[in-house]
Model the fold of this input.
Amino acid sequence: MVEAPRRRPRPATPPCWTGSPRAAFRADDLRQPTLRIDHAAGQPLAEERDIPGTHAHQQVMVKPKLVARDSTASY
Done:
């Protein structure tokens, strides 16, 4: 009797994974309005900074300042 080939274990999913690609997009959509508002207010979302001792750049997320939301706007 021939032994069935063993299945390889599934690769570990990254910790940021929310389940399905669609769910990941939905999670992004929930975060998007605040980013959109901050961007519309002219606040940069990321800064490029030099990494000392190298020629590389690092993108650093800037903490968005609180912006009053317009209750009549459609998000």
Q: What stands out?
A: The beta strands are 46-50, 57-61. The longest strand covers residues 46-50.
